Amino acid sequence: MILQHPDPPSPLTLETEKKLVAQSQQGDQEAFAALYRNYVQAIYRYCFFRVQDGDHAEDLTADVFLKAVDGLSRYNERGLPFGAWLFRIAHDRVVDFYRKTGRRPVVELTDDFMSDDLSPDVSLEIAESHDRLYEAISHLTDDQQAVIQFRFMENWSLEDTGRMMNKSANAIKALQHRALQSLQRYFSQKNLRGSDAQHE
């Protein structure tokens, strides 16, 4: 199972990635395997949050890396991590998935917020329920989903996340704040509806 991993890898440095990509473009399978190991969990989670199905997410993840192998000879680094290219491929594969299946992405949450910090009740609920957390994350904007994933599931720094998304560390911090407040709002609304239902 790709989704859960006790110790997700830290992002490779750009210099290390450049060497591995160059070696991969020369046919070095071990070099590409190192790139695969570094990104496979993150790509899987990216797909999972968007299709909400483990089997489909695994199929999409495999497809992403097959596309990467096919297009590796045409890849240009351009100062961004190799993963940025992989995530663009993943985005395209998810779009194709929705087009072929006729399904639609979950509607985004609005951007009004409730407080500056997550309440203890919401924090506990997030910690206790992965399923509800994944459902809540699926309502975030694409950039907010990516920030939550990279910062809290992959344990990447603000700087590493910024490099992956081609944004400044301050922009990542702002996205993170908005994403957490959107999760706060989502769980608070869920709790309110549940409380109302109990009193009917």
Q: Could you please describe the fold and organization of this structure?
A:
The protein is mostly helical. The protein has two domains: 11-105, Orthogonal Bundle (Rna Polymerase Sigma Factor, Chain: A), CATH 1.10.1740.10; 106-200, Arc Repressor Mutant, subunit A (Orthogonal Bundle). The chain is 70% helix and 0% strand. The protein has helices spanning 14-25, 29-51, 54-71, 82-101, 120-128, 130-137, 142-153, 158-165, 169-198. Helix 2 runs antiparallel to helix 3 and helix 2 (29-51) packs across helix 4. Residues 1-6, 106-118 and 195-200 have low confidence and may be disordered.
List the helices and strands and how they pair.
Elements: H1 14-25, H2 29-51, H3 54-71, H4 82-101, H5 120-128, H6 130-137, H7 142-153, H8 158-165, H9 169-198
Identify the notable features of this structure and list them briefly.
mainly alpha; 200 residues; Rna Polymerase Sigma Factor, Chain: A; single chain; Arc Repressor Mutant, subunit A; disordered C terminus
